[in-house]
Amino acid sequence: MALREGYTRSVDSYEEFKVAIEEGGFIHAHWDGTAETEERVKKETKATIRCIPLEGGMTSGKCMVTGAPSARRVLFARAY
Predict the structure, then answer these.
(1) Contacts from 65-71 at CB under 8 Å and sequence distance 24+?
(2) CATH number of the domain residue 51 falls in
(3) CA 19, CA 27: separation in Å to the nearest integer?
(4) What is the CA radius of gyration of the chain?
(5) Does the predicted TM-score (pTM) go above 0.85?
(6) Which residue range forms the structural domain that includes residue 55?
(7) By the 8 A CB rule, do 31 and 13 touch?
(8) Does position 3 have pLDDT exceeding 80, yes or no?
(9) Domain count of the chain?
(10) What are the pLDDT digits (tens) for 21-64?
(11) Count of Cβ atoms closer than 10 Å to residue 34 Cβ
(12) Which of 2, 30, 32, 57 has the highest Cβ tally under 10 A?
C-alpha cells in the first residue's frame, strides 16, 4: 500500500498534470465527466482514466482541463 501511495500524486491544473504524467505513476485529478475531455487528455498525453472512485473522498472541484465543475477526482495513468 505504501508503494502504491508513493506513486500517486494529486494535481489541480492541466499543466501540472502534463509534468506529473511524464514522471510516471498515478495522478489524481478533477475531470468534468465528459468523453470529449477524456479523449483530449488521451490524445495529448496518452493517459487514460484508470479508476473512478465510487466511495470515499467526494471532494468537488474544477476539471483540470476545462475548469467545469467536477464532483470528484479520478485516477489517471499511462500504460507502459
Answers:
(1) 65/14, 65/31, 65/32, 65/37, 65/40, 65/41, 66/32, 66/34, 66/37, 68/32, 68/34, 69/32, 70/30, 70/31, 70/32, 70/33, 71/33
(2) 3.30.110.30
(3) 11
(4) 12
(5) yes
(6) 2-77
(7) no
(8) no
(9) 1
(10) 999 999 999 999 999 999 999 999 999 999 988 876 678 999 99
(11) 13
(12) 30
The sign of the CA dihedral 27, 30, 35, 41 is: negative
Q: Which residue has the cell 500500500?
A: 1
**HEC string of the chain?**
CHHHHHCEEECCCHHHHHHHHHHCCEEEEECCCCHHHHHHHHHHHCCEEEECCCCCCCCCEECCCCCCEECCEEEEECCC
Residue with cell 506529473: 20
Q: Please report the pLDDT score of residue 35 as a whole number.
A: 96
